[in-house]
Amino acid sequence: MKRIVILGSTGSIGINTLEVIRQHPDRFNVVGLAAGSNVEEMIRQAEEFRPRIISMEEESAAETVRQGVSYPVEVVWGGEGLLVLASLKESDYVVSAIVGSRGLPPTLAAIQAGKTIGLANKESLVMGGSLVMEASRKAGVSILPIDSEHSALFQSMNGEPRERIRRILVTASGGSFRDWPRERLVTATKEEALQHPNWSMGAKVTIDSATLMNKGLEVIEARWLFDLPYDQIDVLIHPESIIHSLVEYEDGAMMAQLGTPDMKVPIQYALSYPERLPLKGEPLDLVAIGELHFRAPDLDRFPCLKIAYTCGRQGGTLPTVMNAANEIAVERFLAGQLSFLGIEEVLEEVLSRHTLVPHPTIDDLFEADRWAREMARQCDARVG
Ligand SMILES: NC(=O)C1=CN([C@@H]2O[C@H](COP(=O)(O)OP(=O)(O)OC[C@H]3O[C@@H](n4cnc5c(N)ncnc54)[C@H](OP(=O)(O)O)[C@@H]3O)[C@@H](O)[C@H]2O)C=CC1
Ligand SMILES: CC(=O)[C@@H](O)[C@H](O)COP(=O)(O)O
Ligand SMILES: [Mn+2]
């Protein structure tokens, strides 16, 4: 029985994770849940899964949950609360599914406490990939990818010689504006951007998909998870999101993982690895789909992907700054304070002002993150 803590249980990944666990009560037991402000969903989840401990972002939300749950449960809160959940002694597995760079401290804490990690929170690898991977090597813990592309890559490397990989191809749907000309992006609205063609996900990752920054974050995530240089990581636009990514080997063979766009598949694989369990869901009907399509990404229409490659290659504090500026820009876009193309303008502006720290400590990363957020908030007024 795996004893699981879910950080971000009320979100899209968190809810899908609980659905997987619901299907396998003999395999998985929920011992802790953490979320931000959604007290109603947390109370409902607590009543069903009976975790021993819960964490919420604010003290007031924690108190509401404590009073709303019908059994004696420990409720903690804030950044400290997340660290308590991450290193809980009754758990052996932590699902890291908080959105954004605030997922980094609890992910690192869980690694240092020796927990196996199911990683959805790609921002923690973008912000601090080198430190996270070094910590996982030191602690001897596995980081199992939940992100669909990285799960596909992981599955496509299973039993194959890593040194024979020629390159990996990270597939991308192209997002909500895949076929829009650049001129039309000027007026793109939040409602339009939130209409992802294939996946139902949280707002932040859906906007990142629309700018192609999600693919940029995923390229950096792949660099760290699979220890590959950037010139062996390519992006392939695949509008149907059926092939979740591919690995090309030196003999020309390509291995891929296919499936319907359903996050329960990679989540369950990460939870059950190295086993493969049954899962309820629509089987993939390739005859009904008929055709799959592919094309190269258009970096002129979607420069965020180019920005991410540049930041990843230069390294140091640049990916941290890019990630933080992107989080603020997306937040402001969702709040109606920034245009869609304003997101890339904020990134360019903040990055142009940053002085790169080449071998950052964890404190350097947090300082770069703080600085970039402040800068990105200031830029908003000019491009909004
Ligand atoms: N959704 C998907 O299909 C995929 C997501 N990912 C990645 O997974 C991560 C989560 O994405 P997704 O589930 O879509 O996001 P959602 O926005 O749906 O959920 C985010 C979760 O984080 C919680 N949260 C936010 N702030 C805090 C905080 N300060 N303390 C504790 N919890 C907090 C939210 O709680 P609350 O709602 O209670 O405020 C919620 O549970 C992201 O990094 C994303 O890129 C990767 C691949 C696919
Ligand atoms: C489901 C998942 O893993 C998302 O990260 C997804 O990849 C987003 O779709 P895009 O391919 O549009 O970025
Ligand atoms: Mn993905």
From TrEMBL:
<feature type="binding site">
    <location>
        <position position="148"/>
    </location>
    <ligand>
        <name>1-deoxy-D-xylulose 5-phosphate</name>
    </ligand>
</feature>
<feature type="binding site">
    <location>
        <position position="173"/>
    </location>
    <ligand>
        <name>1-deoxy-D-xylulose 5-phosphate</name>
    </ligand>
</feature>
<dbReference type="GO" id="GO:0030604">
    <property type="term" value="F:1-deoxy-D-xylulose-5-phosphate reductoisomerase activity"/>
</dbReference>
<dbReference type="InterPro" id="IPR013512">
    <property type="entry name" value="DXP_reductoisomerase_N"/>
</dbReference>
<keyword id="KW-0464">Manganese</keyword>
<keyword id="KW-0460">Magnesium</keyword>
<feature type="binding site">
    <location>
        <position position="149"/>
    </location>
    <ligand>
        <name>1-deoxy-D-xylulose 5-phosphate</name>
    </ligand>
</feature>
<feature type="binding site">
    <location>
        <position position="215"/>
    </location>
    <ligand>
        <name>1-deoxy-D-xylulose 5-phosphate</name>
    </ligand>
</feature>
<comment type="similarity">
    <text>Belongs to the DXR family.</text>
</comment>
<dbReference type="GO" id="GO:0051484">
    <property type="term" value="P:isopentenyl diphosphate biosynthetic process, methylerythritol 4-phosphate pathway involved in terpenoid biosynthetic process"/>
</dbReference>
<feature type="binding site">
    <location>
        <position position="149"/>
    </location>
    <ligand>
        <name>Mn(2+)</name>
    </ligand>
</feature>
<feature type="domain" description="1-deoxy-D-xylulose 5-phosphate reductoisomerase C-terminal">
    <location>
        <begin position="143"/>
        <end position="226"/>
    </location>
</feature>
<feature type="binding site">
    <location>
        <position position="147"/>
    </location>
    <ligand>
        <name>Mn(2+)</name>
    </ligand>
</feature>
<keyword id="KW-0521">NADP</keyword>
<dbReference type="InterPro" id="IPR036169">
    <property type="entry name" value="DXPR_C_sf"/>
</dbReference>
<protein>
    <recommendedName>
        <fullName>1-deoxy-D-xylulose 5-phosphate reductoisomerase</fullName>
        <ecNumber>1.1.1.267</ecNumber>
    </recommendedName>
</protein>
<feature type="binding site">
    <location>
        <position position="38"/>
    </location>
    <ligand>
        <name>NADPH</name>
    </ligand>
</feature>
<feature type="binding site">
    <location>
        <position position="36"/>
    </location>
    <ligand>
        <name>NADPH</name>
    </ligand>
</feature>
<feature type="binding site">
    <location>
        <position position="218"/>
    </location>
    <ligand>
        <name>Mn(2+)</name>
    </ligand>
</feature>
<dbReference type="Pfam" id="PF02670">
    <property type="entry name" value="DXP_reductoisom"/>
</dbReference>
<dbReference type="GO" id="GO:0030145">
    <property type="term" value="F:manganese ion binding"/>
</dbReference>
<dbReference type="Pfam" id="PF13288">
    <property type="entry name" value="DXPR_C"/>
</dbReference>
<feature type="binding site">
    <location>
        <position position="10"/>
    </location>
    <ligand>
        <name>NADPH</name>
    </ligand>
</feature>
<feature type="domain" description="1-deoxy-D-xylulose 5-phosphate reductoisomerase N-terminal">
    <location>
        <begin position="4"/>
        <end position="129"/>
    </location>
</feature>
<comment type="pathway">
    <text>Isoprenoid biosynthesis; isopentenyl diphosphate biosynthesis via DXP pathway; isopentenyl diphosphate from 1-deoxy-D-xylulose 5-phosphate: step 1/6.</text>
</comment>
<keyword id="KW-0413">Isomerase</keyword>
<keyword id="KW-0560">Oxidoreductase</keyword>
<dbReference type="InterPro" id="IPR013644">
    <property type="entry name" value="DXP_reductoisomerase_C"/>
</dbReference>
<feature type="binding site">
    <location>
        <position position="214"/>
    </location>
    <ligand>
        <name>1-deoxy-D-xylulose 5-phosphate</name>
    </ligand>
</feature>
<feature type="binding site">
    <location>
        <position position="122"/>
    </location>
    <ligand>
        <name>1-deoxy-D-xylulose 5-phosphate</name>
    </ligand>
</feature>
<dbReference type="InterPro" id="IPR036291">
    <property type="entry name" value="NAD(P)-bd_dom_sf"/>
</dbReference>
<dbReference type="GO" id="GO:0016853">
    <property type="term" value="F:isomerase activity"/>
</dbReference>
<comment type="function">
    <text>Catalyzes the NADPH-dependent rearrangement and reduction of 1-deoxy-D-xylulose-5-phosphate (DXP) to 2-C-methyl-D-erythritol 4-phosphate (MEP).</text>
</comment>
<dbReference type="Pfam" id="PF08436">
    <property type="entry name" value="DXP_redisom_C"/>
</dbReference>
<feature type="binding site">
    <location>
        <position position="196"/>
    </location>
    <ligand>
        <name>1-deoxy-D-xylulose 5-phosphate</name>
    </ligand>
</feature>
<feature type="binding site">
    <location>
        <position position="202"/>
    </location>
    <ligand>
        <name>NADPH</name>
    </ligand>
</feature>
<dbReference type="InterPro" id="IPR003821">
    <property type="entry name" value="DXP_reductoisomerase"/>
</dbReference>
<keyword id="KW-0479">Metal-binding</keyword>
<feature type="binding site">
    <location>
        <position position="12"/>
    </location>
    <ligand>
        <name>NADPH</name>
    </ligand>
</feature>
<feature type="binding site">
    <location>
        <position position="13"/>
    </location>
    <ligand>
        <name>NADPH</name>
    </ligand>
</feature>
<feature type="binding site">
    <location>
        <position position="121"/>
    </location>
    <ligand>
        <name>NADPH</name>
    </ligand>
</feature>
<keyword id="KW-0414">Isoprene biosynthesis</keyword>
